[in-house]
Design brief:
Blueprint (H helix, E strand, L loop, with lengths): L3 H28 L3 E3 L5 E3 L7 H14 L3 H27 L6 H10 L5 H20 L3 H21 L5 H16 L12 H12 L6 H19 L2 H20 L2 H6 L2 H8 L3
Antiparallel strand pairs: 1-2
Helix pairs in contact: 1-2, 1-8, 2-3, 3-5, 3-9, 4-5, 5-6, 6-7, 6-9, 6-10, 7-8, 7-9
Length: 274
């Protein structure tokens, strides 16, 4: 729908703009004492996922200007709406979140005991964000349920991987590139609002110079979920939903990090570039 030149411009703007903004936001977080020990105990800035947002909005403005059909505009604004919502839920969790409780099961168990955690709020809020997007794009109750679950569970998916430098972004790039290649129509350009921003930041995460935090992982996750809900048949979406449910159940019982470390191929990929 859009020329390769237009897509190239969006991509380069996202890549260059985000790269130039990274030092500004890194210093902002350090000056504001938004730092946390990483898995090695080194104090580094957290919530660096904030750098994904500026060029998302700027390129979103450009795309909105050139979008003439209302369905396209609806998809664009729902995509940005979902990302911005989960950005704020993520930064709330990064800044005031209590790490004594982890996992969806733990957060909901606390909630049933009358204690709301930031993780519990994020899960509930993500569910309602998924619901409002699903209601806007779905044709029937089945679609609403499937799309809501896909968006909510995809949002949390990147949290499961974001335990070592670069791991979550590596998983994200594999999934998002596959989505970009297989999408058709107007939806195909939406990944370019976020993908180059992530690539610009990737080396900072990989070298443990900063942590994107839930601020970033939530943004990555929901971008996958919304695109899956937008662009695929029911059978494909059901297959993705089954995968999401299984990996969430699996990671509640087993350590994904230990599994990766005990597998030579996965461990090699996980450490690649650090």
């Amino acid at each position: 729908m859009y020329s390769y030149i237009f897509r190239g411009i969006i991509f380069i703007l996202g890549l260059a703009g985000t790269y130039l903004m990274i030092p500004l936001f890194k210093n902002l977080l350090i000056d504001s004492n938004v730092i946390r020990p990483n898995y090695k105990g080194e104090m580094i800035p957290v919530s660096m996922g904030i750098v994904f947002l500026p060029m998302l909005i700027i390129n979103g403005i450009i795309l909105a200007f050139f979008t003439v059909d209302t369905i396209g505009l609806l998809c664009l604004f729902l995509f940005i709406f979902g990302i911005v919502c989960m950005f704020f839920a993520g930064i709330l969790d990064d800044i005031i979140g209590n790490r004594d409780v982890s996992g969806l099961k733990g957060h909901f168990k606390s909630l049933f005991k009358g204690k709301l955690t930031t993780g519990g709020f994020k899960a509930l809020f993500g569910g309602f964000v998924g619901l409002i997007i699903s209601v806007a794009i779905s044709k029937n109750i089945t679609d609403i349920i499937v799309n809501t679950l896909i968006i909510a569970l995809s949002t949390n998916l990147m949290n499961l991987f974001d335990l070592r430098p670069g791991r979550a972004i590596k998983a994200y790039l594999v999934i998002m590139i596959a989505i970009f290649v297989t999408l058709t129509g107007y939806i195909k350009i939406l990944p370019l609002l976020i993908l180059p921003n992530v690539l610009a930041y990737f080396n900072y995460d990989l070298k443990a110079k900063a942590m994107m935090g839930d601020t970033g992982s939530n943004v990555l996750g929901i971008s996958i979920g919304i695109l899956m809900a937008f662009g695929y048949t029911l059978n494909v979406r059901l297959g993705w939903l089954v995968f999401l449910i299984l990996i969430h159940i699996f990671t509640e019982k087993f350590s994904l990090t230990k599994i990766i470390e005990n597998n030579k191929v996965l461990n090699f990929i996980d450490r690649l570039g650090r």
